[in-house]
Amino acid sequence: MTQIPTLTGVVESSDLGRVLVHEHVFVISSHEYVKNYRDDVDEEALITQAVRELTELKAAGIDTIMDPTVWGLGRYIPLTRRVAEQVPINIIAATGLYTYGDVPFPMLHVGPGEMFDQPDPLPELFVRDLTVGIADTGIRAAFLKCAIDTKGLTPGVERVMRAVGQASVRTGAPITVHTDSASRSGLVAQRVLGGEGVDLRKVVIGHSGDTTDLGYLTAVADQGSLLGMDRFGLDAVLPLADRVATIAELVRRGYTEQIVLSHDAFCFADFFPPYEPRTSMPEWNYVYISHKVLPALLEAGVSQADIDTMLVHNPRRYFE
């Protein structure tokens, strides 16, 4: 067993229960934007909404969520902790940096070969979050997050990914990567992280569920990583039937132990205008897997034991 820090204390990995591996509470990528231009954002109302939705998630049979909101997406632990203190569910925080292109301005001119030529400060920042705590909250992150999207391996994306890999090797913390399955960028992430010495069995290749390309998915899985089938409810990208059929086929081929499930949902994200996507995509929410996806998987021939492996055993092994 391994002790896992959460927003409300440490839990044993054996006590994580059913885990959704990729759910955000709040995505406030620019507090400057929200504070100055979004008069529809009421933090107290957001907390109330989050408490209600996460309490419903617990009632739907989920015990833990991993929240990969990091620098670049607006991680603000004091706000999320107020939610965690009121819900009967474990919330696990992440560290890392989210970018599709450049590093943020505070890092742009600092690092090897830059104006202020010095060792990259990013790995140290991530290690501090994992070992000491985030800011002055005393809450430690338990996993790392980076991203590679349609722009590919830009210099900024590569710098962040290598920093995440170095922090993982130093601490043993696992990694989740936002990827673009259409460009098969999960394979690029595996190459870069593997080059830093990362154990690819401790990596979730996120958003793998956005494709039906079994050749790509099995190539990722054959290198040991977990497939993040983690955007259930986002039918605009790929319909439920296709997502379920892909998982059922992967299970049939023997990849059950490399599949994890989630929605990539949130209570609020400043990426969207007011009331969206709740009105246009009402099924993209925390309980869709419990209410719709699991019955669909069972109907497709996936066993309850397979589902338990995806929701319980695979996330536990990811941390252990």
TrEMBL record:
A Pfam family assignment: PTE
Keyword Hydrolase attributed: yes
Top-level taxon of origin: Bacteria
Record-linked SUPFAM superfamilies: Metallo-dependent hydrolases
PROSITE patterns named among the record's database cross-references: PHOSPHOTRIESTERASE_2
Keyword Hydrolase: yes
Gene3D superfamilies: Metal-dependent hydrolases (3.20.20.140)
Residues annotated with N6-carboxylysine modification: 145
Record keywords, A-Z: Hydrolase, Metal-binding
UniProt record similarity statement: Belongs to the metallo-dependent hydrolases superfamily. Phosphotriesterase family.
Name the UniProt record assigns to this protein: Phosphotriesterase
Organism of origin: Fodinicola feengrottensis
